[in-house]
Amino acid sequence: MAIGAARPRQLSRSMDLSGVRIETARLRSERAVATFWRWWSEGGCRRTTAAIESGHARRVVPEITSLIEAIDPGLSWEFVPASEGGPHRLTVTAAGVPELRGVARRWLAQAPPDDSAWAYADLRDPVSGCAMHFRDRRLGFDEAEVVVDVGLSRADVTVHHPGFAGLVGSDPSIAAYLLLDAMCGEAAVETWVGTIRSNATAPGDDAVSLYALPGILREIEQENTDEAGEPAWQILHGDTSAGPMVAVVRVPLVSLSAPEFDRHVAVHVPYTDVEDCGLPGSASLPGLRDLEDHLVDRLEGTGECVGAESCNGRRLLHFYVDSTTPAHEQLRVACSGWDQGEVTLTVTDDPGWRKVQHLRV
């Protein structure tokens, strides 16, 4: 049984994007991560192991909770006692909040190597068993049914369970999310599930068992992975107030795919060969492709391009970069040679990848 401190899932999270405050919060978080691992190495690991093996695991919960909350109050954590001779596992997770994915990953990056006693993770694995407990009530997996609306790269899921009856406030939504995590694992849910809804009433004929959902998500993953096992790219078409739009996007567009890239750089590129529909013509297309390749090369692994939108004589390139590096300034300098108009950049701290969610379909 997992023991830990789970925060209610935040369905949305507002961020103060003031540069100074964001930087201060990150430095404070990094110091708290270092404090946690110092505590762990200087006796916390030994005391936690002893508490688990003596059957008094809850004795260390307040101390660990305090240390994790110092990193970020929105994080959740748990440890799962060893089974079948394996190690205990300590997990610190963003608990479904995209903005916290980088924080959890930085915690994991400072962890010691796994050994015979302890393993470390920032994502919950699927659980074994036939039920989970939430607010002192048992939610059996076999009682849960889901209605799945499958898109190109995500599935919106409505979870039906009679045990949701009587839950109030945000609790039904939290319980639905935790049921999906328990069945599919946190990585699959964050990567391939979009909107999650809860319902205590019996579903219609289009519902399937909760046990079917992992297979559905695996199919979505396979359809969005290329032959080399790399993320696939999608071509999207749409209409805007400025005219037709064509977008090319990398899948999946979620912060979990690169949590260290927490800053969005929008590169606005004008082009001179404009077709009647506003899209780039044959004289501009090679230059646009070369510019994108040049920008990616200049980043040298400190960021990546995840999508491009073309409309009304302009191409918008979506980059995510590591905010601890000068990557956004490197992009600005690399655009200076463009000869089809003035390139402008908009830089926004966006650890939750909110700036590209309109392209996740």
* Average residue pLDDT: 92
Which class best fits the helix and strand makeup? alpha+beta
Question: What is the CATH top level name of the largest domain?
Answer: Alpha Beta
Q: Tell me what portion of residues adopts beta-strand conformation.
A: 25-35%
The total count of strands amounts to: 16
Portion in helices: 25-40%
Largest sheet: 6 strands, antiparallel
General shape: globular
Task: Output the radius of gyration.
Answer: 23 Å
> What's the CATH topology name of the largest domain?
Alpha-Beta Plaits
Number of helices: 8
Short overview:
The protein is of the alpha+beta class.
Structure description:
- With 361 residues, this protein is α+β, with helices and mostly antiparallel strands.
- The chain folds into three domains: 119 residues, no CATH class; 93 residues, GMP Synthetase, Chain A, domain 3 (2-Layer Sandwich), CATH 3.30.300; 127 residues, 2-Layer Sandwich (Alpha-Beta Plaits).
- 30% of the residues lie in helices and 26% in strands.
- The strands form four sheets. Strands 11-12-14-15-13-16 form a six-stranded antiparallel β-sheet, covered by helices on one side. The chain has a four-stranded mixed β-sheet with strand order 1-2-3-4. The protein has a four-stranded mixed β-sheet with strand order 9-8-7-10.
- Strand 14 and strand 15 form a beta hairpin.
- About 3% of the residues have low confidence.
